[in-house]
Amino acid sequence: MEQTSAFWIEKLCLQKHPEGGYFKEAYRSDESISHLSLPFRFKEDRCFSTAIYFLLENDNFSAFHRIKSDEIWHFYKGSSLTLYIITEDGCLSNLQLGDNPLNGEHFQITVARNSWFAAHVNAKSSFTLLGCTVAPGFDFKDFELADCEDLCKEYPQYETLIKKLTINQ
Fold first, then answer.
1. pTM (whole model) above 0.85
2. Which phi and psi angles does 56 have, rounded to 5°?
3. pLDDT, tens digit, for every residue of 117-139?
């Protein structure tokens, strides 16, 4: 059987994600860290770590968003992907997640906490299957989807890219 995006969506029981693409939580630590031991940005306890499967297909994209924890993206299958990261100090990087290091691709990319980030599949007729690991563990309370207008005001130098990779244009 050909391993298409539809194959992986069904095989891994992936669901639509609010930022775009499809996901399924694959791991959530059963141990937690008290919010009193975490940085001030966390108002509640968090589990040690979480991991998801994430799939983007064709011209779908992961819209600009940020979370309060570091997140590591791991490449698994399909086309390479471009990951755009705007750090807290306003620097933009575009990194390639994939399996060809001779083409500047990385098997893993770490996104620093509080950075805005978005992604798209490089081969428009393909998909990218990846994993994301978050520590302290992911909680939707820590997830912020970018507002296009607000992000453009904050980073006007990246307006074209922001408008391309946000949901509410």
1. yes
2. -115, 145
3. 999 999 989 999 999 999 999 99
